[in-house]
Amino acid sequence: MRNTKSNRAATAWLLATALVVGLPQLASAQSVLRIGMTAADIPRTLGQPDQGFEGNRFTGLTMYDALTMWDLSSADKPSVMIPGLATEWKVDEADKKKWTFKLRPGVKFHDGSPFNADAVVWNVEKVLKQDAPQFDASQVGVTASRMPTLASAKKIDDMTVELVTKEPDSFLPINLTNLFMASPSKWQAFYDKAEGADAKAKSQAAWAAFAKDASGTGPWKMSQFTPRERLELVKNEGYWDKARVPKIDKMVLLPMPEANARTAALLSGQVDWVEAPAPDAVKEIKQRGFQLQANESPHVWPWQFSRIEGSPWNDIRVRKAANLCIDREGLRDGLLAGLMVPATGTFEPGHPWRGKPTFEIKYDLKAAQKLMQEAGYGPSKKLAVKTQTSASGSGQMQPLPMNEYLQQALAECYFDVKLDVIEWNTLFTNWRRGAKDPSANGANATNVTYAAMDPFFALVRFLQSSMAPPTSNNWGFINNPKFDELVTKARQTFDPAARDAALAELHAASVDDAAFLYVAHDVSPRAMSPKVKGFVQPKSWFVDFSPVSMAP
Amino acid sequence: MLAYIARRIVYVIPIVLSVALVCFLLVHITPGDPLVAVLPADASQELAAQMRAAYGFDRPLPVQFGLWLWRALHGDLGNSIATGRPVLAEVLRAVSNTVTLAIAAALIGFTLGLLFGLIAGYFRDTWVDKVATSIAIAGVSVPHYWLGMVMVIIFSVQLNWLPAVGAGPGGSGSWGWDWEHMKYLILPAVTTSVIPMGIVTRTVRALTGDILSQDFVEALRAKGLRELDVFKHVIKNAAPTALAVMGLQLGYMLGGSILIETVFSWPGSGLLLNSAIFQRDLPLLQGTILVLALFFVTLNLLVDIAQASIDPRIKRG
């Protein structure tokens, strides 16, 4: 009995000591997630990030919200658009160019100022209204083209705003995922303090100051920023969506443009997560117990065909033959060590915009050879085609070895492929100028990857005849009345389900026409420490860092 | 001496202007769009024209060059297209990191190079000479980015002794010469030091051997001077040439090594140049090249002056 008593006393004493000693430690133990990005610099932090969708992923969707957002909660279903800072919206039945957005009540910016209709108008005008004090040309380029029809915004009441488009456009709510809401109050405070010769100089100074001390409504707040080196974000305890208040306390973002350096940083424990590890290190990463996350991305690695007069790709049999001549599974399992998904179109089965194409894109060598023979080619009469590509570039995966694989594969279908390898920026510039431009060097296909998040980026800019250069990226001057008709139908269908059906019809038509040589989708590989828990890799360019936790 | 210094400074002006002109023209005549970092791929012609006008790329090249040079002379290198931040601040921050790296690498490289060179020169054609010479040849022959990767694999990934990348636990913004920061510096500094170490070894070995074979050394020894005093004479005679070589090497290191800084994600001028090239950020690219050229030219000037002060014959030349 005495023993039991003394044991209890000892246990109680130990527990008390543990609580006294341990609790402050628990309270001060901060969970930190360190991420090695592929970017060479911290993407811009002032609201509209640069560096493509990697910028949106790390400094857009973390610190900021938009009126509409992507659902990033599932690894199995394609990411779809959901309400964000707007809870509901509708188009004016009488004038399909006018939209009304109801705003989410009770949302505050990181500086404590309220989010309301004035803030929405201010943020639209920062990129669209040239005489607005907050207009910033440097943010226009990365914003305007992602919402090409938006013209203006008007406050109806504190929690209601009206947006106007240049033409009826049902894609507007999807496009608005790209317009991040920065705090007008915070910016105004910087503007009032700024010194400058004129309003424009003061505005520039205010944006520069805002970039160093940003304020949005997102789940993460900026805490420390060293340009080109690191950005530290801390959790926003007051985030409006309680389910998405981050589980970890701090996230550190580090630019590491070199794949081997990123991989070494992960393997040596310097960071907990790296984007796009070096492909030849994948085996070691797995062997050493690290996680490798990958999932199909809305991304296409294609050859975009020239359809100008005289192009060999004007014959649909040739386009279909090329699509049937590639062993995509072989490319995935061999050259790319599993890090790709074979493409059978811009969208794969299960996607709401996939539709029901009748032309099945698969590896069928005999069918491909037959089509080529019907088109007048054979072992003794090969079809010469020339494709422009680059040795590297954003989202280009492994362009040279992949193109050499295609070159060999297509040779079996009587193609004689010549590759014209040029520098990435030059290729990208030509993408805007089109197949007729001298900078195309007479190529009749170009190999530039593209994001397929929204209908304009995924389909319209390539398929609509009016999107031919210099307007947009219909590089090969596709001019198909059926595509034009379906684009108009999709744009002018405002019921979301009917709009999705119209887009599915457009996509199916593009596959049936073998509009591109569809090869692969990237899988956005990222490697992480076994301590990283709760991460869901959606079928998206973006990820949600909120549910991520760190095991001790 | 003052006249010599003034003459050398006057020579620098056309060199700097030529460098400014060449780097301006080089980045403008290469194909591709100067606004590729901020213009989306599907930008309309209207938007592209608007942006071009906003950044001044719609003006004739001579006007653009004149305006750029005028602002540069007033300490304004413009703003980065990609980030909007002032180029001068970006370049100076990167250069300060490169200077840190170069100083550490110079300390290692020059110390070892002088040591190996003197030993090899004094003990010419012995096994000591062969070992020192082999190290020197390896130093200049091994691709340093490859050596960097090997060092990372051994000391970071396998042994976990030193960090693989970066400039410190809180970035270079909180730099200090303490162990927490120094351990980030060791691998890039050792890798950077390998080439200057090899070159200095070879130069000093050749100089020492050459001087030791001259008559005046025999005369000094015949006069009964201790070997340590003879050694001082050898060093004095070898110093101008060795100094010139070390100055050039320091210049190369201050110019930043794109490969080493990329391998170690060291936020110096080499990495800055790399990202300016990849983002085709013309103001940043021009500004970085200009500042680095100024560094190089200034360093050469200082080396020339130092040489002239040691060896009066140079002034006459």
Measured between the Cα atoms of the first and last residue of chain B, the distance is 12 Å
Order of helices and strands of chain B: HHHHHHHHHHHHH
Which spans of chain A have pLDDT < 50 for at least 5 consecutive residues?
17-27
The average pLDDT score of chain B comes to: 84
- In the predicted model, the low-confidence regions of chain B spanning at least 5 consecutive residues are none
| Strand arrangement, major sheet of chain A | 8-9-10-1-11-20-12
Q: Taking Cα atoms only, what radius of gyration of chain B do you get, to the nearest Å?
A: 24 Å
Average pLDDT score of chain A: 91
Shape of chain A: globular
Largest sheet of chain A: 7 strands, mixed
Biggest beta-sheet profile of chain B: none
Find the count of extended strands of chain B (DSSP E, 2+ residues).
0
Number of DSSP helical runs of chain B:
13
Based on CA atoms alone, the radius of gyration of chain A comes out at: 26 Å
Shape of chain B: globular
Strand pairing plus helix content of chain A: what structural class? Answer: alpha+beta
Number of helices of chain A: 17
Query: What's the total number of strands of chain A?
Result: 22
Instruction: Tell me the greatest interface.
Output: A-B, 54 and 54 residues
Which terms summarize this structure?
heterodimer; A: 552 residues; alpha+beta; seven-stranded mixed beta sheet; 19% strand; globular; B: 317 residues; mainly alpha
Question: How would you summarize the topology of this molecule?
Answer:
The complex is a heterodimer of chains A (552) and B (317).
Chain A: H1 2-28, E1 32-37, H2 52-60, E2 68-70, E3 81-83, E4 86-91, E5 98-103, H3 117-128, H4 137-140, E6 150-157, E7 160-165, H5 172-175, H6 184-193, H7 199-212, E8 220-226, E9 230-235, E10 250-255, H8 259-267, E11 273-275, H9 282-287, E12 291-293, E13 299-305, H10 316-324, H11 328-333, E14 341-342, H12 365-374, E15 383-389, H13 399-411, E16 415-421, H14 424-433, E17 445-446, E18 450-451, H15 455-463, H16 481-491, H17 496-512, E19 516-521, E20 526-528, E21 532-533, E22 549-550
Parallel strand pairs in A: 1-10, 1-11, 15-16, 15-17
Antiparallel strand pairs in A: 2-3, 4-5, 5-7, 6-7, 8-9, 9-10, 11-20, 12-20, 13-17, 13-18, 13-19, 14-19, 21-22
Helix pairs in contact in A: 6-7, 10-12, 16-17
Chain B: H1 2-29, H2 45-55, H3 61-73, H4 87-122, H5 127-141, H6 144-158, H7 179-212, H8 215-222, H9 227-254, H10 258-263, H11 269-278, H12 282-310, H13 313-316
